[in-house]
Every structure is written in C-alpha cells, then in structure tokens.
Amino acid sequence: MSDRTLSRKAAIAGIGQTEFSKDSGRSELQLACEAVLAAITDAGLTPSDVDGLVTFTMDTSEEMEVARNVGMTEVSMFSRVHYGGGAAAGTVLQAAMAVATGVADAVVCYRAFNERSGNRFGNMTGRITTLPPWLSWYAPYGLMTPASWVALHAHRYMERYGVTNADFAPIAIVDRTNAATNPGAWFYERPITFEEHQQSRWIIEPVLRLLDCCQESDGGVAVLVTSTERARDLPNPPAVIAAASQGATFDSEMMTSYYRDDLTGLPEMGVVAKRVWSQSGLTPSDISTAFLYDHFTPFVLMQLEELGFCGRGEAKDWATVERLSLGGELPINTSGGLLGEAYIHGMNGITECVRQIRGTSCNQLANVEHALVTSGTGVPTSGLILSTL
Amino acid sequence: MSSPLADWSESPAWLAPIPTSDDREFWVGARNGELRIQRCGACGLHQHYARMLCSHCGADEIAFVVASGLGTIYSFTVIRKNGVPPFRERVPFVVASVQLDEPGARVLAAMPTTAIESVAIGARVRAQFRPVGDEFAFVDFALDSA
Ligand SMILES: [Zn+2]
C-alpha cells in the first residue's frame, strides 16, 4: 500500500459531550468548552497536550476563546470546515491529516450550539439585510427553510421511483426505537409506531410529515484525534480512522442545488462513498453499523443508494425496519440519530460510532469492526469509517 | 375548494435582487417582459442562472437569448408555513423547478397566481413577470392554459 494514504494513521481517542436539551441555559462557548474538556479527559490527556482545534465555519465559539477557557497553552493547527452539517466528519478529516503529517499531535474537533433556544435555522426574520448569492435565487420566492429546500429533491425522487411517504417511516421508527433505550436521548422511552408516523401532520405534503423531520437541540459534542500509535497507549480502545473524505460535485449548493441535472440523488455523498471505500479497502458488506445523517428521512434512503448498500431506486424496498434495527443486517443510528437523540449537527453520530467501536454504547451491538458515519446531506458533505485496532 | 391567492405585488427591499454584471440581463429582461437565459454558441444548450462558462461543455461562447417562457414542472413543493413577512401572509403557495422548452435550462420560481391543488409534476407552465423596484422584475410561473 502506498504511503500516501490517510487510512489507519489516526484515531479518535476521546469523546465528550454536554447533555442534549431544548434550552441549555448557558452560552454556546460554555457548551463548547464543556464538550472539549470532556473529550480531553476521556482521552486521558490534559488541555496542554492538545495542539490543534477544528470546528464548523458556522460555530460561534472562536478557537482562541475555547483554548483560553480550557487552558491550552500552545496550538499549532486550527481550521474550520464549511457547509453546515456537511462539516461533521470533515472536522475529523482535518484533524486526521494534521496528526498523520505531524503538524499536530492531538487535535480536538468540536461543535456546540443553542440551535433550539438560540438562533434557529430557517428563521430569517430580522436577521437578513442582503441575501448571500446562492440564496438570492430562492429566497425571493419564499423558499427559506431546510424542509422546503429538501422537498424539491425528495418530491422528484418519489415521482421517479414510485416512493411514498410511508416508505420513509422505517427510518423514523428505527431512530425512535433506538432513542427509546438511550437515556441521553431527547426521545428516551418514547418510541413511535408506523401508524403514529403516518398520522403525524404534514410539513411538506406529500413529502415530509412531522416525524420525518429531525428535532432541534441545544448541546455540544467534541472528539479528540491523535495518532493511532499514541492512541494505543491511552485509556480507551481507539476508534481507528480507516477512511475520511469530504465530497462535493459540479453545481453543489447549500441545500438547494436545483440547477444540477438530476435531483434524484445526492452526488456529494457519491463522492464520499467512492473515496471512503477505496481508502479503507472495505465494501458495504463489511460495515457493522452506520450513522446516516437523518435531518430528513428521504435523504437517508438516497444515502443508502449513494453508498452502495442498494441500487438506485431500491432503497424503498431495501430499507426495512428489520434490516436497519439492532441485530439486523445494517443497524443504523443506534443512539437514536438526529431524529431521536439530538441534532448536534452530526457530531453526535461520530461519538456514537466511537462508542460502538469501544463496546460502550447503550445499544451495543455484538462484534463491531467497522462503523460508517455520514454528515449533512444536500450540501457539500463528508463521511468516515471508524474501525477497531 | 381552492385556497384564496395572496397578493404578491409588493416586496420588501431586502428581497430585491442585487444584480451583478453577469446576471443583470436576466433582471432587466424580466422587467421588459422577457425571460432571458444564456445560450452556448458551441453546444447550443441553454443555462440559467447566469454563469461565466457553459455548464454543459465549458465553452465561453455565452450569449443571452429570449426564451419562450414555456416549460414543464420538473419538481415542486407547497410552502404552507413561512414565518417571514411577506411570505407569512402569502401561504400556502407553490415553488416549482421548471424545465424550460429550450434544451438544457431549468428555472426555479414561485407560482403565486396558481391554485396549489392544480399543480403536478409534468404540468405545462408559462413565465410571468412581477416588477420589483424601479428597474427589475421577478420571474414567476403559472399553469399554461393555451
Ligand atoms: Zn456549451
């Protein structure tokens, strides 16, 4: 194997998070610092051991504010990743590259927000004076919320492949079933049935019902990345980064991309898929569990197709509750996902897959070897595969 | 049983287009009652919105042409909730992606004068123009009765 590979050179050695709520009662910076400190402590390190920081461009907590507050003394690498929830695994990619090349020794990736109690996405009231270029073609027509952006893609996908809203129910049911046994999940002990899904109110008819849309949350999540070699000597079993990639294509936009040829796929995720399979040498059948970014259920079906778990248009039949549940062929979102656990912009999917690799999930699967994580869909995105040592 | 249609004639200043040198032609054209899109001299295909190069073949032989304004609904959604004025008062309404008859181009726009119940993927539509400010206009679509 060529030396020019990132595969298995870095690992996640620490994870940290705050509680997930609808009103944290404290600042986003405070949430970020709590999560960062928790990840450092979990890795058995101290703040002065950390020399790199990566977050989302959308995050409000400045790197130096975080460093100052938690007591980092010397930082040699910091960067930010663009495109909303598409950044999640991308932060780990940045950290892994820094660690693999010796630019940094221990990098913390973090994301913290009061998305429910503070600035909610899609709420443009009083915040916009001039529109960003990509939005200037859409906002004048009232297309302003994530659900409405997603709907134009999903509607065409449904028309093309004969998919109905009922075909999205398995994703919501599996997420909420897993959340029901995760004490940290917002929807702990509140599973849903197929009938409840089908009776929930339309958000965008005939595409999205209320139970197809993820919740909004307050909270912070952080992960600590170091070299696989160093991670071996730290307290927790390392989650080795077998592959990490970002993905974007011609005519990618932030949630809209209405001017690309075909709206029935997620080509950004197709790029991620191609790269993570070739980088890791793995195939879909090697994956023990996946965390598939689930802000809106239709895009989970489209991801299964892009990632090669099934063919184009086949996800509506392939994605059954049985297959995606704990103990099934491809258990997904074992913490409850963004729908069931919390919406921390996908970072909580990474921590859940680390727990599955360590053997410490509250919904622990047997014999986990490789876990796949994807980030925000409908935007330039990212993904990674975590493996046991 | 159709929902009453709201009045879209007034738009606040923050929604007004801020044309660039690349797309000014589109906005001015709309004010003149024309749907102006770009056509590539090399491959003959069209594109919207305005770009520097042809999105189909990469050539730089781009020129604006006046499109027929006719097309077919490629996908659409119905906006039932939007808390931002003036859309708060306009719901429910349709936003559609329209495949123009001119090969290669799609246009995303609202359909403010069309009852939401009558919209379907594949339906034939025609462009219409809604002035904004002194110089420009938005392009909307309506079901084509012809
Ligand atoms: Zn061309």
Distinct ligands, ions and cofactors found in the model: zinc ion
Distance from first to last alpha carbon of chain B: 23 Å
CATH level-four homologous superfamily name of chain A = Thiolase/Chalcone synthase
| Count of runs of 4 or more consecutive helical residues of chain B | 1
CATH secondary-structure class of chain A: Alpha Beta
Interface with most residues: A-B, 34 and 36 residues
Strand content of chain A: 15-25%
Q: How many separate structural domains of chain B? A: 1
Biggest sheet details of chain A: 9 strands, mixed
Radius of gyration of chain B, taken over Cα atoms and rounded to an integer in Å: 16 Å
H/I helix tally of chain A: 14
Low-confidence stretches of chain A: none
Mean pLDDT of chain B: 92
Point out poorly predicted stretches of chain B: none
Biggest sheet layout of chain B: 5 strands, antiparallel
In short:
By secondary structure, chain A is α/β, with parallel strands linked by helices.
Can you offer a commentary on this structure?
The complex is a heterodimer of chains A (389) and B (146). By secondary structure, chain A is of the alpha/beta class. Chain A has a single domain, classed as Thiolase/Chalcone synthase (Peroxisomal Thiolase, Chain A, domain 1, 3-Layer(aba) Sandwich). Chain A has helices spanning 28-42, 63-70, 88-100, 133-136, 146-161, 169-180, 194-199, 228-231, 267-280, 298-306, 315-318, 321-324, 337-340, 347-358; strands at 10-17, 52-56, 77-81, 106-114, 202-204, 208-209, 218-227, 239-247, 289-291, 370-374, 381-387. In chain A, the strands form 2 sheets. A 9-stranded mixed beta sheet of chain A has the order 3-2-4-7-1-8-11-10-9. Chain A has a two-stranded antiparallel sheet with strand order 5-6. The mean pLDDT of chain A is 94. Chain B is mostly beta strands. Chain B has one domain (20-143). Chain B is 5% helix and 37% strand. Chain B has 1 helix and 8 strands. Chain B has one helix spanning 24-31, and strands spanning 35-40, 46-47, 62-67, 70-79, 93-100, 106-110, 124-132, 136-143. A 5-stranded antiparallel beta sheet of chain B has the order 6-5-4-7-8. In chain B, β7 (124-132) and β8 (136-143) form a beta hairpin. The radius of gyration of chain B is 16 Å and the shape is globular. Chain A binds chain B through residues 123-125, 128-131, 136-145, 148, 151-153, 155-156, 159, 202-205, 207, 250-251, 258-259, 263, and chain B through 11, 14-18, 47-49, 55, 74-85, 87, 90-91, 93, 95, 97, 106, 108-110, 121, 132, 138, 140. The structure holds zinc ion.
